[in-house]
Write a structure and sequence with these properties.
Elements: E1 2-7, H1 16-29, E2 34-40, E3 44-48, E4 51-56, H2 64-68, H3 73-81, E5 86-90, H4 95-107, E6 111-114, H5 121-125, H6 128-144, E7 148-151, H7 154-162, E8 169-171, E9 190-195, H8 204-214, E10 221-226, H9 231-244, E11 249-252, H10 258-265, E12 269-272, H11 281-288, E13 293-296, H12 303-306, E14 310-313, H13 317-327, H14 332-349, H15 352-368, E15 377-378
Parallel strand pairs: 1-2, 1-5, 2-4, 5-6, 6-7, 7-8, 9-10, 9-12, 10-11, 12-13, 13-14
Antiparallel strand pairs: 3-4, 8-15
Length: 380
């Protein structure tokens, strides 16, 4: 079976899809399928982890709007000429996503569309005027050509329906590569970590305000905010830190690979104060490193409570304040036990090999056969 994944870009290593889409491609390629990713990036082609990654340049450098939309004539033509049994698109609001619909329609190929959190009410508020115009010109028509939507959580399924989309939906979560943990001696000072893209939707203002209420009560804890973001927005957060008089809230740049694992392992507790997440890869990453979490219910991780590896709370200053006062009082042994519970959960339910097998058996094969009666597919 020939499977093509389309996505605007996977160059931003801090973005969840930059990890999850290649991992999904590798998981299905490991089953013997012919898998490619088409994206915008440094032009070229390479084969890694069993799949082929084809990258295309912007063809409209002199047109600011087209460049901002990641328009690429060469990507569209290559996609049009590439034989495929399935096109699996990831994301919204950019031209590479639209190309997948144009090609699927023209070539009669089943189209799976993963919104990747971009249909949540909170995400739709950002650049809403631009999205309204783009939807009228391109997006709404493209969404009509979708055969099946891929949601990574029940909440994203509800977001798809709330947007008015009626096609079948399959819910398959992202997976996680379980890191090999290394012996790490945690420092005497204890660290509360945020790791990820620094963006307004992450709720960091609420976190900083909550931290200002409790910082003096927990002198052995530090707050570290790590990740990339727009310089102007990071500067605004640093001004908030100064205005609140915080002395133990610091910022650092994002890291990848083994260095990312080390940042998690050196921390005692992870926090994600987001307003909205379709999956929240950093929760899975933290738990896979044996670090318990505080997560807002803007992310679909209620299981951290039942699995006894964290807290799932409202995305508000007051809720974060109350919850952190409870979490930061936990002993090191208690937090370690919670972290071990989380790592066992990730090993059991979120392996990429299992995710790839489910996608093949419950989605790709039924679609190619023209049969959408898989028990994993919601028709309502």
């Amino acid at each position: 079976m020939k499977i093509i994944h389309t996505i605007a870009s996977i160059e931003d290593e801090a973005a969840g899809p930059s990890y999850s889409v290649p991992s999904l491609a590798a998981a299905t390629a490991s089953l013997g399928e012919d898998v490619s990713i088409f994206s915008i990036g440094p032009i070229g082609q390479d084969a890694k982890r069993g799949f082929t990654h084809k990258r295309f340049n912007h063809d409209y450098q002199a047109t600011p709007i087209a460049k901002a939309l990641s328009a690429s004539r060469s990507m569209y033509r290559a996609l049009l000429d590439e034989p495929a049994d399935i096109i699996h698109n990831h994301g919204l609001w950019l031209m590479p996503n639209i190309y997948s619909a144009w090609v699927a329609r023209k070539n009669g190929i089943p189209l799976i569309w993963a919104p990747r959190g971009m249909l949540s009410p909170q995400a739709l508020k950002f650049s809403s005027a631009k999205k309204f115009i783009f939807s009228k010109i391109f997006q709404n028509r493209a969404l009509q050509d979708v055969t099946l939507f891929h949601a990574t959580s029940e909440q994203e399924y509800r977001d798809i329906r709330a947007y008015g989309l009626k096609q079948p939906v399959v819910i398959i979560p992202n997976g996680i590569d379980m890191p090999d943990l290394v012996p790490t001696k945690k420092t005497a000072r204890r660290r509360l970590l945020f790791f990820g893209r620094i963006h307004p939707i992450k709720g960091l203002e609420n976190l900083l305000k909550a931290w200002s209420n409790i910082e003096k009560d927990f002198p052995d804890w530090d707050l570290q905010i790590t990740g990339p973001g727009e310089p102007q927005y990071i500067a605004s957060l640093k001004k908030l830190v100064s205005r609140l008089g915080l002395t133990r809230a610091t910022f650092s740049e994002g890291v990848n690979g083994a260095a990312k694992r080390d940042v998690y392992q050196a921390s005692h507790l992870y926090i994600l104060p987001s307003q909205s997440e379709n999956f929240a890869m950093t929760i899975a990453e933290s738990l896979s490193c044996g670090v318990p979490v505080v997560c807002t219910n803007g992310a679909p991780w209620s299981g951290v409570v039942t699995r006894k590896c964290g807290w799932w709370v409202e995305p508000s200053e007051d809720s974060l304040d109350t919850t952190l006062r409870i979490a930061l009082q936990k002993t090191a042994a208690e937090l370690n036990e919670m972290g071990e519970n989380g790592r066992k959960w990730m090993e059991q339910d979120f392996s990429w090999s299992g995710i790839g097998s489910q996608l093949m058996s419950d989605v790709y094969q039924p679609l190619v056969r023209g049969n959408m009666t898989s028990p994993s597919i919601k028709l309502d």
